[in-house]
Amino acid sequence: MNDTLAVILAGGKGTRLEPLTRDRAKPAVPFGGNYRIIDFVLSNCLNSGFRKMMVLTQYKATSLDRHINLGWQGYFCRELDEYIDNIPPQQRIDEQWYQGTADAVYQNIYEIEKQRPNYIVILAGDHIYKMNYRAMLEYHCRMNADLTIGALRVSPQEATQFGVMAVDENQRVIGFDEKPAHPKHIPGDPNHCLASMGIYVFSTRFLLEQLCIDANNPTSNHDFGKNIIPSIISKDQVYAFQFRDENRKQDSYWRDVGTLDAYFEANMDLVAIDPLLNLYDSSWPIRTYQANLPPPKFVFGSRNSGDRERMGVALDSLVCGGTIISGGRVERSVIGPQVRVNSYAHVEDSILFEGVDIGRHCKIRRTIIDKGVRIPAGFEIGYDLEKDRQRGFTISEGGIVTIPKTDAIETLLGHRGESLRFDAPAGVHSVPTPLGLERTRNTVSR
């Protein structure tokens, strides 16, 4: 393991996840309340015994750099030659940003050569799964391979979105097609194909030779799936390693959360009674940065308030530290740190990022709300998609409303002239501030 370097590609724009990626890289997008997407591949590396990692960043990398520095540097000792380094584009070789996955590694060839590893494991930083990379590395050595590709069993319909491998009876790769219209099935299994997971184990010398050849090819896209792999399978030792899930469930779990709908569904997986992704398995922990926050708090029960409608409760939900459910109701939702759900509000089937404030009597459904957004009292989101679209909110193909990161929702609505006035029902007292949020100091009755 001391001879292995993990290179994590974390520089993609993530345009299909906008507006969540307007201010952050895709691997830095929060997931499951406490986590960031990149925490899963980093946890896999640490749990696999890898102690040398390079994270190649590019677009909007500030929050990703901060997260890794806060949450991950403490696991490594530089004096023992252990490290996790965030490396931005340095233009040591070319005056361009990364042109493809292979080019990203090639432009950092100087850093790789300095480490002198025998093996390089190349990983994507934007997928949700659990995997022991050590088993794949051992397979690579046992097969005396030049390249080993992580392979996922998928249906022929799903395979059209992946790079698909054709293999012989010894799992040697004999064909590779990027997003084929008619993918080849696994020998003896017409119901499944082998899709590339974007996980590669290379023998270092072989990789560096191929990167140099590709860099000098003016017609190349400088991509592993499109260029490197198809050019070597007929003459070099390339093998497929079928995904072995460490999730300890009946079905394997691997998710590409590259769209708002896929991201939403993967989060909603977590609130099921028996979730598909097990975050509570101490034998394969998912690590992250944990802020020093108090426990979540639920206040205003019917017994001490006398108001059956004003009850702080969360059902079938994940609720993170520092959150106060103050007389509101939360159902089937993922609630990030330091969120506040005020009296009589109802949040269902939604994802709230850190610091979101839901005003009194709000109704939120099938909505993703980014960090720090404050929703004024009485607002309804997710009930009238056409009205939400007119407000400037992003609506996914699946009908998920997404509100981007802002200081207040008024920032989005002010230029549209939409009124933020809210008249509370009779008998309910509220004191709206100029921003439309009721605030009381040093109390929980909001």
Descriptive report:
This protein has 446 residues and is α/β, with parallel strands linked by helices. It has two domains: 4-269, Alpha-Beta Complex (Spore Coat Polysaccharide Biosynthesis Protein SpsA, Chain A); 297-416, Hexapeptide repeat proteins (UDP N-Acetylglucosamine Acyltransferase, domain 1, 3 Solenoid). The strands form six sheets. Strands 1, 4, 5, 6, 8, 9, 10, 11 and 12 form a nine-stranded mixed beta sheet that branches. Strands 16-19-22-25-29-28 form a six-stranded mixed beta sheet. It is elongated, with a radius of gyration of 24 Å.
Condensed summary:
The protein is α/β, with parallel strands linked by helices.
CATH homologous group name of the largest domain: Spore Coat Polysaccharide Biosynthesis Protein SpsA, Chain A
Low-pLDDT segments, ≥5 res: 420-446
How many DSSP-defined strands?
29
What is the straight-line distance between the termini?
A: 54 Å
**How does CATH name the architecture of the largest domain?**
Alpha-Beta Complex
The domain tally reads 2
> What structural class is derived from the secondary structure elements?
alpha/beta
Fraction in helix = 10-25%
Report the β-strand fraction as a percent range: 15-25%
The residue-averaged pLDDT reads: 88
The CATH topology of the largest domain, please?
Spore Coat Polysaccharide Biosynthesis Protein SpsA, Chain A
Task: Identify the CATH class of the largest domain.
Answer: Alpha Beta
Radius of gyration: 24 Å
Tell me the number of helical segments per DSSP (H or I, 4 or more residues long).
12
**Major sheet, described briefly?**
9 strands, mixed
Oligomer: single chain
Globular, elongated, flat, extended or rod-shaped: what is the shape?
elongated
